[in-house]
Design a protein that fits this description.
Layout (H helix, E strand, L loop, with lengths): L1 H18 L2 E2 L6 E3 L8 E3 L47 E10 L5 E11 L10 E8 L5 E7 L5 E3 L8 E3 L21 E5 L1 E3 L4 E3 L7 E7 L5 E7 L19 E3 L5 E3 L23 H11 L8 H7 L3 H58 L1
Parallel strand pairs: 2-3, 8-9
Antiparallel strand pairs: 1-2, 4-5, 5-6, 6-7, 7-8, 10-13, 11-12, 13-14, 14-15, 15-16
Length: 369
């Protein structure tokens, strides 16, 4: 009988060991949920539900700073040896997000890396965070970086400004203002400027300080305005609805309003006044107009309706036509002056001829008497 119970016990132990999902060896990898851990600590969860493996690190204390911590630590050396100061570029730790590829292997989907970003201090080490995402080219691409100085880069792994964007586009969306003194539903971007409850403020010491703002209202109008400082950051613009302060605005219908628009262009048509410029004859211009119903070189109504109007090019064409028109007027004025001189000569000759005819008529009348 004792032998029977011994056999039963061995079978139960063997059965328990066969279904065991944990592995805690004295050395080597530790597994939770797996008897074949692949990493230093391998936590796995296999089931039919939609809950994955959860690692819970909890801290219970009435101290406000207490709680659970997850620490990823890099050292040059070991805890039983001598530490060596970590260096610029050292990785403190990596968090990988992985899935199964089309080839049925574990593949990278995203990654967060912490790295040293300067010379280590006595207590703290300057560090940066880099965020990577995977792509269909089987590569992890660094998409966003936060440096130790607080610079944020999107598509710029080494941002040199507070916010830097690499190659790409930017879309900004803002919620409603939360002050009763501001319009609800408005959005703005301030450059060295911020919106207070009663107006705009400019940061600085009051000496040659200024800023600007791009602002949209609830109607979809977009305004751009400069803001000058009257002192050490005092408000100077109560509200951008004061149109006298607007430098530039666009309505939802596409209407642009500005105090001045400067268009950079080249090849301004002063060549019309060169001696070798061939001025078209008015006869040729009339023939072109009769055939096409618009001036030569000027886009037709159909072309403008299809392609729109290029302000720079149109102003060049209009100036060219104005200069050609000026030459036509100068030519006509010259012809008019020459005609007037000819008329004066003819008038004088007619007057002299009339005087002679009168004298001859008188002589003939005297002979008849």
């Amino acid at each position: 009988m004792k032998f029977f119970y011994l056999i039963i016990g061995i079978i139960l132990l063997a059965s328990y060991d066969g279904y065991s999902q944990n592995s805690f060896p004295a050395t080597g990898n530790v597994g939770i949920g797996t008897s074949n851990p692949q990493t230093s600590l391998d936590v796995q969860h296999i089931g039919t539900g939609n809950t994955g493996a959860i690692v819970s690190i909890q801290g219970f204390d009435d101290n406000g700073g207490a709680g659970g911590y997850l620490r990823l630590v890099k050292s040059r050396g070991t805890t039983v040896g001598t530490f060596t100061t970590t260096a610029l570029g050292d990785g403190f730790g990596t968090v990988d997000f992985m899935g199964v590829t089309a080839g049925n292997v574990i593949g990278y989907g995203a990654r967060i890396v912490g790295r040293q970003d300067g010379t280590a201090g006595n207590t703290y080490i300057p560090g940066k965070l880099s965020f990577f995402t995977g792509n269909l080219s089987d590569a992890l691409v660094e998409q966003m970086t936060i440096t130790s100085s607080g610079n944020v880069g999107i598509g710029a792994p080494a941002p040199i400004a507070d916010f830097q964007i690499g190659n790409g586009s930017v879309a900004l969306s803002f919620g409603s203002a939360n002050s009763a003194n501001l319009h609800y539903g408005t959005s703005y971007i301030g450059f060295n400027a911020a919106r207070a409850s009663t107006g705009w403020t400019v940061a600085g010491n009051g000496v040659n300080n200024g800023g600007g703002v791009i602002y949209s209202d609830v109607f979809g109008n977009i305004y751009m305005a400069p803001i000058a400082s009257n002192g050490a950051g005092v408000q100077t613009l109560a509200d951008l609805d004061i149109k006298s302060n607007i430098a530039f605005s666009i309505t939802p219908a596409g209407v642009v309003r500005a105090k001045q628009i400067k268009v950079e262009t080249t090849n301004w048509p002063d060549y019309v006044f060169k001696k070798d410029y061939q001025l078209p004859s008015l006869t040729d211009v009339k023939a072109y107009i009769d055939q096409n119903q618009h001036l030569p070189e000027i886009p037709s109504e159909q072309e403008i309706a299809k392609d729109g109007l290029n302000l720079g090019e149109m102003n060049k064409l209009l100036m060219k036509k104005v200069e050609e028109l000026t030459l036509y007027l100068i030519e006509k004025d010259k012809e008019k002056t020459e005609q007037e001189q000819t008329n004066k000569v003819l008038t004088a000759q007619i007057s002299e001829l009339k005087t002679r005819l009168d004298s001859l008529s008188k002589v003939l009348q005297d002979k008849q008497q």
